[in-house]
Design brief:
The longest helix is centred in the middle third of the chain and has 69 residues, at about 1-70. This protein has two helices and three strands. With about 100 residues, the protein is α+β, with helices and mostly antiparallel strands. The chain has a three-stranded antiparallel β-sheet with strand order 1-2-3.
C-alpha cells in the first residue's frame, strides 16, 4: 500500500515538474517571439526610410536626365555615337516609350 502511495506521489511530483517546465518554456518562447516581432518592425521602419531616400535619389537622376535631353545637340550626339551617317545625312536616334531604339522622323 505504501509503495502505491509512493508511486502516486512520485508521479504527481513528475507531472508538476513537467508542468512547470512547460510553463517556463512557454514564457521564454513568448518573450523570444515578442522580441523578434519588435525587431522586425524596427527593421521594416529602417527599410522604409532607405526606400524613401533611394526614391528621392532616383527622382533627382530622372530630373537630370530630362534636363540633359534639352541640351542634346548634334555635336554631342556624335560624341556619344548616337548618330548614324547615311550619305552625308545625319539621323538622330531616340528612345521610345517601349525602350527600343527608333528613328526620329
Amino acid at each position: 500500500m505504501k509503495t502505491n502511495k509512493l508511486k502516486l506521489n512520485i508521479n504527481r511530483i513528475r507531472s508538476i515538474q513537467c508542468l512547470f517546465l512547460a510553463i517556463i518554456v512557454s514564457i521564454f518562447g513568448y518573450v523570444y517571439m515578442v522580441n523578434m516581432i519588435a525587431f522586425d518592425i524596427a527593421q521594416k521602419g529602417k527599410i522604409a526610410n532607405e526606400i524613401a531616400v533611394v526614391n528621392s535619389q532616383i527622382g533627382d537622376l530622372e530630373f537630370s536626365i530630362i534636363e540633359s535631353k534639352k541640351e542634346m545637340t548634334e555635336d554631342l550626339a556624335k560624341e556619344f555615337n548616337l548618330t548614324q551617317e547615311i550619305e552625308n545625312d545625319t539621323i538622330f536616334v531616340l528612345r521610345g516609350k517601349n525602350t527600343r531604339l527608333t528613328f526620329n522622323e
